[in-house]
Amino acid sequence: MSQPFVVTIPLKLDGPNYRGWAFSVQTVLRGLGLADHLTDYPPVDESKDGSGATTVKAWLTDDGRVMSAIVTSMNQSLIMSLSSLETAKVMWSYLQKRYVQDSGALLHTLMQQIHILEQGDMSIDDYYSAFDHLMGPLMSMVPWCTAAAGCPTPTFIENFFTYRFVMGVRPEFESI
């Protein structure tokens, strides 16, 4: 008997790290050819003789693996919120709605925190991590064109946040 095929996600979802966790899930599943389970519903056997049942069964088995990967990559306290959801697509949509908020209050809070963030006693790596931790939720709220998405030049918002990051570094880094 062969070993069961297990999908392992390297990051545990704890709520605030949704953006990084979602990227990890999508990347791992894309590499395994299973990313479509996050966006597609199960196929339906429309054959009159039931010949498509094997395809449906294989898809459902793979969907179960994706669901298992999602559940096992979450903190235990979050798992039960998924108990009534029956496909990976429905789980994915639920988590996205829960953790990617388009909220004026959240936007205000993030902008305040970015405004007051300065390097201070932090190393440049720690400062960058703190800045990136705030930027992740903010970036997920704003649909925009980025250089990574094929825009030829940086947008105003990309330049703004680059300058905002630089404004927070200690004076010894200003010349760089």
Automatic annotation (TrEMBL):
It comes from the Eukaryota. It holds the Pfam family Retrotran_gag_2. PANTHER family: CCHC-TYPE DOMAIN-CONTAINING PROTEIN (PTHR37610), INTEGRASE CATALYTIC DOMAIN-CONTAINING PROTEIN (PTHR37610:SF77). This is Retrotransposon Copia-like N-terminal domain-containing protein. The lineage of its organism: Eukaryota, Viridiplantae, Streptophyta, Embryophyta, Tracheophyta. The gene is ga04571.
